[in-house]
């Protein structure tokens, strides 16, 4: 298994998180608070999605290494 930082999913998550945080912090100018909330939500959800994805990969690899494991 490749380290997490060498995967495409990691880099896409980083880009989405950075853009979301830039929106949430006001670094990217917007016309309303809704965009800040959406940016924060996008950042959080992409990070959570990446964590779920990586844990799924690790679990699959552990099962392949030990077929007796459920």
Protein model, in words:
- This protein has helices at 8-25, 33-65.
- By secondary structure, it is mostly helical.
- Helix 1 (8-25) runs antiparallel to helix 2.
- The mean pLDDT is 87.
Task: Please provide a brief summary of the model.
The protein is 73% helix and 0% strand. It has 70 residues and is mainly alpha-helical.
What layout of secondary structure does this protein have?
Blueprint: H1 8-25, H2 33-65
Helix content: over 70%
**Amino-to-carboxy terminus distance:** 20 Å
The low-pLDDT segments are none
Instruction: Please count the beta strands (DSSP E, at least 2 residues each).
Output: 0
Helix and strand sequence: HH
Beta-strand content bin: under 5%
Morphology: elongated
| Mean residue pLDDT | 87
**Helix-and-strand structural type:** mainly alpha
- The biggest beta sheet, please? none
Radius of gyration: 16 Å
- Helix segment tally: 2
Write out key terms for the chains shown.
70 residues; mainly alpha; 73% helix
